[in-house]
Amino acid sequence: MSTAAQAAAPARSRGARRVRWTPRRIVLLAIGALILLIVLFPGLFTSDTWNKVNVADKFLSPSWDHPFGTDEAGRDILQRMIHGARLSIGASLAVAFAAAAIGTIYGAIAGWVGGWVDRILMRIVDVFLAFPYLVLAMALAAAIGRDMKSAIIALIIVWWPSYARMVRGRVLSLKRDLHVRAARTLGASSAQLLRWHVIPHTFGEVNARLTVDIGYALVALTGLSFLGLAAQGTSPEWGLMVSTAKSFVLSAWWYALFPGVVILLTVLYFVRVGDELAGEES
Predict the structure, then answer these.
(1) CA-CA-CA-CA torsion sign (226, 227, 231, 233)
(2) Could you tell me which CATH class the domain 95-282 is placed in?
């Protein structure tokens, strides 16, 4: 290992901190593990009849057999929501992680290089940030195609600039820090400095924002589905379920209520986790 690499290696562990496992954080971790299980293995929690049409059982109110009631086709709403979690939460995770990755790399390059490159790259970011993100996402989703894939691509396109601006500001501060200057003096290349000394020190802020943005992305995706710009047909995506239920809200109150409550609680969970991570950083 070169001298520069040896000097760079300790920087990767300097930002590591011991996690304080309070009862609240243990509960949050347990809920997160349950959500992950539902997203990855929905079959563990439902039968294989979750999408079976049974008109004789349509609009059954909540009961022991159907805790969330049934829909207009007699399908169990709870089972459909469990299978829809893979679409709704999985797509939100894809949007948030992809946007964070693109924005982190873009912002790190802009902040590190500086000069006219930084100015040009940040003007591009300003163009995206000049539009309300949801309005721009609606326009992009409608232009690309009215399906879930198009909605995910549209939200990634409008979401990454906020990460780029945040990371760029952090990199501008970090590249003047003593440990970065010392590593540069020892011969570390720009790539090594970014990889070992700069970008890892932005992960705290990125992780805190990323977790909150998963919830916001869920709201945006369900909103696009509600407007007919994302999930289509008989998909169990949560936003589409609420959109379908609006026609029956007076005769089947549970149809829209339970998906809406689950969306709200899921968003609040990710916001709470983001607050915990932000508090850990501060």
Answers:
(1) positive
(2) mainly alpha
What pLDDT score does 155 carry? Answer: 95
Handedness of CA 59, 76, 52, 93 (dihedral sign): positive
Query: pLDDT digit string (tens) for 226-245?
Result: 999 998 888 899 999 999 99
**Distance separating alpha carbons of residues 81 and 89, to the nearest angstrom:** 11
Domain boundaries, the chain: 95-282
The CA-based dihedral angle spanning residues 142, 145, 150, 153, taken in that order and rounded to the nearest 10 degrees: -70
Q: Is the pLDDT of residue 45 over 50?
A: yes
CA distance 70 to 57: 7
CA pair distance 103, 84, nearest whole angstrom? 28
**Which DSSP string do the residues of the chain spell out, in sequence order?**
--HHHHHHTTHHHHT-------HHHHHHHHHHHHHHHHHH-GGGTS-TTTT---GGGTTPPS-SS-TT-B-TTS-BHHHHHHHHHHHHHHHHHHHHHHHHHHHHHHHHHHHHH-HHHHHHHHHHHHHHHTS-HHHHHHHHHHHH-SSHHHHHHHHHHHHHHHHHHHHHHHHHHHTTSHHHHHHHHTT--HHHIIIIIIGGGGHHHHHHHHHHHHHHHHHHHHHHHHTTSS--TT---HHHHHHHHGGGTTT-HHHHHHHHHHHHHHHHHHHHHHHHHHHHH-
